[in-house]
Structures are given as C-alpha cells and as structure tokens.
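Weekly modeling sync, notes
Attendees: AB, CL, MP (scribe)

Item 1: holo prediction request
CL wants a bound-state model with LYUYDEPV before deciding which constructs to order. AB pointed out that an apo prediction alone won't tell us much about the pocket. Agreed to run with the ligand included and paste results into these notes for async review.

Input as submitted:
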Amino acid sequence: MKLTFSLAQIDIAFGQPAKNFAKIEQFVKQAADQEADMVVFPEMWNTGYDLIRLNDIADPNGDQTKHVLAALARKYNIMIHGGSVSTKRDGKFYNSTYIFDQEGHQIADYDKVHLFGLMAEDEYLAAGDHKDRFEIKGIAATSVICYDIRFPEWLRTQSLTDSRIIFVPAEWPTPRLEQWRKLLAARAIENQSFVIGVNRVGSDPDNRFGGSSVVYDPLGKEVLRLNDREQLATITIETGQTDKVRGSMPVFADRRPDLYE
Ligand SMILES: NC(=O)CCC(=O)C(=O)O
C-alpha cells in the first residue's frame, strides 16, 4: 500500500498558543493540495517549552487542539497527526498527541512517557502511562514523542503490535541532531519499520532547533531529510517494504523474551 505523508516542519511562537493555532491551517491545506494521506506536526507546537506558564497556556483537556484538528481534518479531507501539545488534565500537565482521521474522528491519543530532564519536563509534566496504536488506511502505526526514542525497549513494546510505521514528533535541539538521526535510523532497523521524525525549527530562550526532519525506511535508509528552514515536505512510502524486510530476516520471531526479564 502506498501512503503519502507531509512533514510540517514549523517554527513555534514561544508561549503564544493563539499565534501557533493560527499558523497550522496553511500547512494542512498545503499537505492536502499535495494529496497527502496525513500531515504530521512537531512536539509541543501550541506553546513550545514555556513550561513556567503552563497553568495559563496549556490546553485544558486538549479541547482546543481536538476541536481545531478535527475541523481541519474534515475541511481538507486529510488525516492529521497532531504532533504534540501541552495539555492540562486533573491538575497536571502533559505532553500529548492526538491523531485524527480524514472525517475528523480522533483515532489515537498518547502522553509522552519518558520526561526529558534537560528541558525540565520532569519538574512540570506528568508522564503518560499507555502506548498507542492506530491505522492509516488499514496500515498499523504507533507514535512516541522525542526523548522516548532513547528507550528502545519502549519502541519495541509498541512495535510488537502489527505496527509498520513509527511517528516521532520532536523539539530536538541543534547540538544533538546527529544523535537524533542515528537513534531514529536504529529504531527503524531494529523494528523493521518506517520511522517518520518531525522536528521543529527556530529557537526559544534556551535552545536552537535545526529541523532535520527525516524519514527512514525499514532498512534504516534515509529516504527524506529536511534542512533547517520552516517548510512542508511530502513523501510517498510503500508500506509492503516492511513485509519484505521482516520476511528476509525474521528478527521478531528470533527474539528470546524468556531471557529479557
Ligand atoms: N524534547 C525532547 O524530548 C528533547 C530530547 C533530546 O533533545 C534528547 O537529546 O534526547
């Protein structure tokens, strides 16, 4: 099955949700014009890492995000991977993903499981407690968030479903971009999956973000890499490639979970 994805590598206005919400429609429209099945956004695009002000700016229950993304999905007849946004639930803050089909139905949600101390997430955010699985035209996929990719056991857990594509929205700072690409390539190879990583560009008071959004195929070959400018890029993948790779080297069947505890 051929699937077409648009990677929306955007800049994010620090602590200004209204500005960020106003920006995303043009990228959804552009992706729809390019006949993408799904458009994918980066991490925490509603507020950036303005964590001190989360009580004022995080999205209560993700309601605004869900409302806006559902409406855009319906308007442009396109699936939307909502990257992630800061949300507020039951007095706690989360880094949350919402995913919508082209009719505007929410098909998945996820809260970042591994909180990144170097960007103070552990001080301000609560960690997620579940994995996700959703389908794109019948093809199973999973999604994690940024720092989660440093935990191969977590992505493996997700990939032990029938997943063939792993999505990774991110705000990954420029000095570690080489690690970003190497980690994503490794996750693609070991899970014999496509990996689609969408990073932001621009800067906030603490970090610069150099884009380098990427797509790896199930052999870990880089099939798309963006530069450090705001842009939307579209790529078509052949998901059957995962079956060929898994058939030629049965890594999943050769696992020894009896020894892994
Ligand atoms: N936003 C993040 O989770 C950043 C993760 C990161 O930069 C890393 O090196 O890991």
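Recorded for review: Residues 43, 116, 119, 146-147, 150, 171-173, 176 surround LYUYDEPV (CB under 6 Å).
Action items: CL to compare against the apo run; MP to circulate these notes.
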